[in-house]
Amino acid sequence: MSDPVSDPIDWPPAWPRVLDGEFGPPVAGGYRASPEDFVVEECLDFAPEGEGEHLWLWVEKRDLTTAMVARELARLCEASPREVGYSGMKDRVAVTRQWFSVQLPGRAAPEALAERLAAHGIRVLDQRRHPRKLKRGVHRANRFRLRITGAAAEDPRFQARWEWLCRHGVANYFGPQRFGPDGRNLLRARALLARGWRKRDDRDGMLLSAARSFLFNELLAARIGAGNWATPLPGEVVMLDGTASQFTVEAPDAELAARAGRLDLHPGGVLWGRGGSVADGEARAFEARLPERFPALCQGLERAGVRLGRRALRLRLADPVLERGDGELWLSFALPRGGFATAVLRELIMHPGL
């Protein structure tokens, strides 16, 4: 077995952008100078039923993490943190709207709950009852509205870069927030996997996610470098747009290529874990390079019992809108669950946080 800490991890990584070959690198730009510059709204496919032992709250938070809101809600409701639910983690330096739930069997909501939450910067926009707890990952998408400033907002190439992404899709990189400042989550993950992952050391699985996300980004970077990140290869596992549905392609044909061109489906990259990959042929060859280059991370994830998964290599921008102001741009678009707005921004602006 290889030395568990020998896997090379250079930070910051030099993961390539898709658009540099056609337009050159983007120019410097600013984003998220204040929380109001980065607005996120969670999109569910259903609404609370109006009755049940779980109180659901549609809240707007500013400059707070999702975990901070969950802890405050548990405290005010005198509930266990396990009795608070939410679907996805949202950015801290942002204005975000999302659902939370708290189990209150046979109990009314605490008096003046909305006012007490508001004192902590949490606005309750709606509240309803529902029979079940809100579970992780049940939202369909996130809607973003982002403000861009600086030289990028005046760059004549910005419009062309934006229109290209709207037509052809975005490389589905995990964003830098997954890895922590200076990649510290990833380095902690490497050390933890080296000595053997234990849940008590990583209760929410954040470090496992950092390791898997890094390996996925490395695979995506290799496919971008080879020019086939958006092209189904022989043996590819392809994923239908906006869903987890997938199937394996033995030999891509003209119809499949046309569907990929319309963004109906995307190549699916591996999220490393235990279990054999169903990819084959040329697509499998790209995946096989990961345990060759990063044996300790791959072996550590397998020993931790993480199950192998799939993630689309490409994202469609849903309902994209660009608005121009005085020395600024506003971008609006929706991404499916798990997509990072920072993956879009890194193709459009040069910024040290991307």
Please describe what this structure looks like.
This protein is globular. It is α+β, with helices and mostly antiparallel strands and 354 residues long. Among the domains are: 46-130, 2-Layer Sandwich (Pseudouridine synthase), CATH 3.30.2350; 170-315, TruD, insertion domain (Pseudouridine synthase). The protein has helices at residues 20-23, 66-76, 113-118, 151-154, 157-168, 184-195, 206-226, 254-261, 281-293, 295-303, 341-348; strands spanning 30-31, 38-43, 54-62, 84-86, 95-103, 122-130, 141-149, 170-171, 236-240, 246-249, 265-271, 309-312, 314-315, 318-324, 328-336. The two termini are 35 Å apart. It is built from 11 helices and 15 strands. A hairpin with a 3-residue loop joins strand 14 and strand 15. Helix 6 (184-195) packs across helix 7 (206-226). The model has no long low-confidence stretch (mean pLDDT 94).
